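Listing S7. Sequence submitted for prediction.
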Amino acid sequence: MTTVGFVGLGNMGAVLASNLVGAGLTVVTYDVAGPARSPEGAAHADDVAALAEKADVVVFSLPDGTASEQVARSIAEAPVLSVTHVVDTSTIGVAAARGVADLLAGSGIGYVDAPVSGGVAGARARTLAVMYSGSDDACEHVEPVLAGLSDRRHRVGDRPGLAQALKLANNFLSATALAATSEAVAFGVAAGLDMGTMLAVLNAASGRSGATGDKFPDHVLTGRYASGFTNSLMCKDVRLYLRSVADQGGPSAVGAVTASIWERFAEAEPGADFTRIYPFVQHP
């Protein structure tokens, strides 16, 4: 039976690791903060090298490309190496994914680029969208692990980096919709409309988006602001998107405006839940 290593037990990673345990896989985890968030039923390694000795496939859920590269390097340099493949669910950008893939290839380790979208609630419900790309052999080998993560999986390409490109496009659209919806709802409320009424009509009209259908009803209207994703991470993702667009010489007029809003929000309230952009926009 394949032993799955899991590195990074943050808000998303802890749930994904729990999903793997729930799917009947043998799981060993590692997190720099210690074993506190390791799911019941999983073992916990003292460091990445110890995990690399026990696991066949390792899943990353890390904050950025630097972290993914550091962990990949630690695996590649482990004194005893059982790892044959890495599945990276982190959002790290196109260039970083290709760089990590090349680094691991030097040690004969396959890499599957597999960022996720749908938030912590989606991870718990197994409705998270896993978009993945990699060689035919690598994708086939890690399919049981991908199936353990979520019931919704989409192969989008045959080489690392393509899933990152789609994830960045997705998060850019999500960031733009949430910022624009915040402005539109703030306008309507100031004019005397009820927010709940606005959302009901928008969701039955052409203004519907993930922001009106999910983020506003679940987190803004309720005052929960607990999506499990921070403004700092969204700001990072939008910056990665713009960097990748610039690398290809693509258009970025809307992207520049969206990035400016999220940068100001992240600077004003670092680490806040990203749905709190509504009160930030409402009362700048």
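Caption to Listing S7: primary sequence and predicted structure tokens for the chain studied. The CA atoms of residues 66 and 96 lie 8 Å apart. The longest strand covers residues 152-157.
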